[in-house]
Design the sequence.
């Protein structure tokens, strides 16, 4: 376990009581967004209160894990540890079928093949025992 | 209450340094204040307001800087919203003066970003401690990459080309060639920009601002007092500021802060786009200029690519833009909002020599802070010599 953490050198998210259910769901390879039970507004990333009506009555909506590339960039220069060893990599906003845009990486494809509008599907990457990341690959 | 013509820029000074390994950030700031006060014909004893922030400063840096300068001001503002901060500070100083909170307010910035080798654009995500950061830092965001995603989307929606973006860099370099203290003064072509390496697609090296040391200061006072000082007053006509962010995952990434801050500034100033003789637009990247001009309403959304072509942004063009050479060629010490205001003041006073814009009476300044593709701030000022 310590060995695996040592090898993963990219920054990890800070998990706290507010966002823990979301990260724990990712560990189960499930992707959720939040929906306000009062006003119906959807939101990503996870937060305790609805930004539209400040209600804390929240429903977790499970996502199908499918969407389209909204925009992307192929990064050729990043001096940060963990990323400088993995250049070039693709960072993208994926627009989920549920209507939410989330920042992610596109994997399992050549950078030159990425196009805006391209259908993609989620792929779960267990990077440490505590953290699983939702990345996307071309839909199969 | 309207702020229009209640306060004025009475002094402006751009530190000439672009590389100062022998100076501290605070020393550059002190030298900049000395220059701006001399320009205004005032002394440090007249100063009773201070606005500053910086990338090399602690969260309470303004207090430490007051200690360094032995200042005990009646008004302090350390609004820290990225590179646009100093545009917002100028507005806040004008409001503070109009409200009687202080009478002579200095806005100052300094940085040794180049000599301290700050990895600004491609150094990965910085602090990363806010809730929003947790959903970004695992994926390798950089400053360049964030702007690049806006450029990519703009190209997709409107067919904007790398050649059109490159024209912005070429124009800024032309202006830098007429600015003796600009860091890069050798003219470049669209071909040079396209031949430079890709940093984060679709942005090339020459689509990106430079990294330099530098600093600058402004002296803001009441319009009445400014009229008795050394230089012709540059009046604050209108101001606006706001932020844009991921908006719960629902954001339209081509709708950016100046759509709101610009509208507020125009309304408050009581002028229209036709009145603007000079646009000082934060040029962290070429796409920043194009998207800002669209969102300010100088052209329709999607028309920015064609708008920036044909020399329209040249000092002798229809909408002169960044006549000092901008962050793309003159200087970019981590944040450059203050230089937008300084060059606008110099142009409105007619001090710009070969790059002087003819009949320059009304200028618009727009600062962008943060990163366009995640979170950013925008601050707009409209200034006039009349």
Sequence:
């Amino acid at each position: 376990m310590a060995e695996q953490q040592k090898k993963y050198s990219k920054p990890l998210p800070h998990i706290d009581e507010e966002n823990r259910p979301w990260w724990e769901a990712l560990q189960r390879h499930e992707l959720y967004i939040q929906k306000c039970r009062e006003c119906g507004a959807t939101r990503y990333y996870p937060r305790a209160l609805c930004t539209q009506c400040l209600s804390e009555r929240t429903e977790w909506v499970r996502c199908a894990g499918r969407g389209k590339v909204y925009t992307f960039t192929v990064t050729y220069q990043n001096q940060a540890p963990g990323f400088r060893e993995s250049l070039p990599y693709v960072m993208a906003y994926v627009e989920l079928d549920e209507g939410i845009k989330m920042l992610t990486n596109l994997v399992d494809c050549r950078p030159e093949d990425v196009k805006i509008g391209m259908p993609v599907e989620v792929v779960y990457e267990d990077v440490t025992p505590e953290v699983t990341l939702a990345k996307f690959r071309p839909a199969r | 209450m309207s702020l229009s013509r209640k306060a004025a820029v009475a002094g402006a000074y751009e530190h000439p340094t672009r590389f100062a390994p022998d100076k501290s950030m605070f020393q550059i700031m002190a030298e900049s204040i000395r220059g701006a006060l001399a320009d205004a014909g005032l002394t440090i004893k007249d100063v009773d307001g201070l606005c500053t922030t910086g990338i090399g400063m602690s969260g309470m840096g303004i207090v430490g800087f007051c200690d360094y300068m032995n200042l005990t001001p009646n008004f302090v503002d350390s609004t820290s919203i990225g590179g646009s901060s100093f545009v917002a500070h100028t507005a806040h100083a004008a409001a503070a003066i109009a409200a009687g909170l202080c009478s002579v307010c200095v806005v100052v910035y300094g940085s040794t970003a180049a000599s301290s080798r700050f990895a600004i654009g491609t150094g990965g995500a910085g602090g990363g401690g806010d809730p929003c950061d947790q959903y970004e830092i695992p994926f390798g965001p950089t400053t360049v990459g964030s702007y690049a995603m806006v450029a990519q989307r703009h190209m997709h929606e409107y067919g904007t080309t790398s050649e059109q973006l490159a024209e912005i860099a070429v124009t800024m370099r032309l202006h830098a060639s007429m600015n003796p203290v600009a860091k890069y003064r050798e003219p470049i072509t669209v071909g040079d920009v396209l031949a430079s390496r890709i940093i984060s697609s679709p942005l090339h090296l020459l689509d990106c601002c430079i990294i330099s040391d530098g600093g600058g200061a402004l002296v803001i006072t009441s319009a009445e007092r400014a009229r008795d000082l050394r230089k012709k007053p540059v009046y604050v006509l209108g101001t606006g500021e706001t932020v844009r962010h991921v908006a719960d995952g629902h954001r339209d990434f081509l709708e950016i802060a100046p759509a709101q801050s610009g509208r507020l500034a125009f309304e408050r100033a009581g002028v229209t786009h036709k009145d603007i003789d000079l646009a000082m637009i934060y040029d962290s990247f070429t796409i920043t200029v194009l998207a800002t001009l669209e969102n300010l309403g100088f052209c329709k959304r999607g028309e920015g690519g064609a708008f920036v072509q044909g020399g329209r942004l040249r000092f002798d063009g229809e909408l002169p833009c960044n006549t000092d050479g901008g962050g793309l060629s003159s200087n970019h010490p981590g944040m450059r909002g203050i230089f937008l205001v300084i060059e606008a003041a110099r142009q409105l006073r007619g001090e710009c020599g070969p790059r002087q814009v003819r009949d320059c009476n009304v200028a618009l300044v727009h600062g962008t802070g943060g990163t366009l593709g995640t979170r950013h701030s925008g601050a707009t000022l409209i200034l006039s010599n009349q």
Notes: The radius of gyration of chain A is 16 Å. Chain A is about 10% helix and 35% strand.
